[in-house]
Design goal:
Aspartate Aminotransferase, domain 1; 2 domains; alpha/beta; Aspartate Aminotransferase, domain 2; seven-stranded mixed beta sheet
């Protein structure tokens, strides 16, 4: 569990915190990069005599602690917890903050893996859920008030309101501050999945959220070479509950994973500027294409959440979703015709990725109200030269007509 950072670090700018939080040089040798601690256990000075508080690797590890301090510093939280994957983080957090019979209200375009975890895994544990359009605050308030009668055990209380903003892959923007009020008025907690925005572009805790969730696999790690997840909070009581489950269940990030995530996090601000600038240019190009039905990118004035995104985000991120006039066939043709954009799961790496959510990331919600349109592809714009990204898409679009 991370502890509050020093006041000097807390007052520094984002990129300074990214480089220095939790990253003090190694005192014996002066190594600027702290060593990776692989030890699973630690020598004790007599029974119960712990050195620097370390006992066993599942509970604490210096490399993981450094990452957790870094994460807390960048999200403006007091405590952060690092896990072996984003879904491991979500699972541990839900088990820490809910009990069988409780109820979760979540976005009706939530990530497929999150919905599968809540509905199929935790549903069997007795946790109910109601998907709802998070942009409709009245509908959210009704779902929260209805609790278990609307999707769980009869009378079950809504404990968590769960939102992704921007959402995956429909790129909806939700008013975090307004949603926090709805949740808090009903005695619920607001959980914000901040994976698409990253701490550089958006800080949900400052807007009233209680819990921030990340798949650190994505923008935080940033290089498609490590899987991880994180939870960040400000409330000591929540931190104690989540920290206990992290320790008791043990789905923690290993030392090398923590180190790779820390290394990626140091350049997050620089990378997010480039991701966002590239995506803005690609989205504006897509908007002019006759093959395109809809471009879903909050940086476009035509996006229904554009003005709200301007208020609660620094820039608009690297993710774009596109729907094609030619339907599923056109979307599949483009998805399988690029070379700079790689057809692959995941997002947020330095390389550009393309995804066909209906059959890939969101296959688990096919046939449900969370199903993704079959004419949609999702782009994760990397840090390559934007001219090459556009040229790659242009040649792929040309194949829609020719069928080649």
């Amino acid at each position: 569990m991370s502890q509050p950072e020093s006041s000097s670090a807390a007052n520094a700018g984002f990129n300074t915190r990214a480089v220095h939080a939790g990253q003090a040089f190694e005192p014996r040798t002066g190594a600027v990069v702290p060593p990776v601690h692989f030890s699973s256990t630690y020598a004790q000075d007599g029974i119960g005599g712990l050195r620097a508080g370390y006992e066993y690797g599942r509970g604490t590890n210096p490399t993981r602690d450094a990452l957790q301090e870094q994460l807390a510093a960048l999200e403006g939280g007091s405590h952060a917890f690092s896990f072996s994957s984003g879904l491991a983080a979500e699972d541990s957090m839900i088990r820490a903050l809910t009990r069988p019979g409780d109820h979760i209200v979540l976005g009706n375009d939530a990530y497929g893996g999150t919905y599968r975890l809540i509905s199929r895994v935790l549903g069997e544990w007795g946790i109910g859920n109601t998907p709802v359009d998070m942009s409709n605050l009245d509908a959210v308030a009704k779902a929260v008030a209805a609790g278990g009668s609307n999707g769980g055990a009869a009378g079950g209380k809504t404990q968590l309101v769960w939102v992704e903003t921007p959402s995956n892959p429909m790129m909806k923007i939700t008013d975090i501050a307004a949603l926090a009020k709805v949740a808090h008025d009903a005695g619920a907690l607001l959980v914000v999945d901040n994976t698409f925005a990253s701490p550089y572009l958006q800080n949900p805790l400052a807007l009233g959220a209680d819990v921030v969730v990340h798949s650190t696999t994505k923008y935080i790690g940033g290089h498609s070479d490590v899987v991880g997840g994180a939870i960040i909070v400000n409330d000591p009581e929540l931190a104690e509950k989540i920290g206990f489950v992290q320790f008791a269940v043990g789905a923690v990030s290993g030392p090398m994973d923590a180190f790779l995530t820390t290394r990626g996090l140091k350049t997050l601000g620089v990378r997010m500027d480039r991701h966002s600038d590239n995506a803005q240019a690609v989205a504006e190009w897509l908007l002019q294409r006759p093959e395109v039905e809809v471009v879903l990118y909050p940086g476009l004035p035509s996006h229904p959440g554009h003005e709200l995104a301007k208020k609660q985000m620094k820039k608009f991120g690297g993710m774009i979703s596109v729907q094609f006039k030619g339907g599923e066939a056109a979307a599949r043709k483009v998805a399988e015709s690029t070379s700079v954009f790689t057809l692959a799961e995941s997002l947020g790496g330095i390389e550009s990725l393309m995804n066909y959510p209906s059959e890939m990331t969101h296959a688990s919600v096919k046939g449900t109200e969370l199903a993704v349109p079959e004419n949609l592809i999702r782009l994760s714009c990397g840090i390559e030269d934007v001219e090459d990204l556009i040229a790659d898409l242009e040649q792929a679009f040309a194949r829609i007509e020719t069928g080649s």
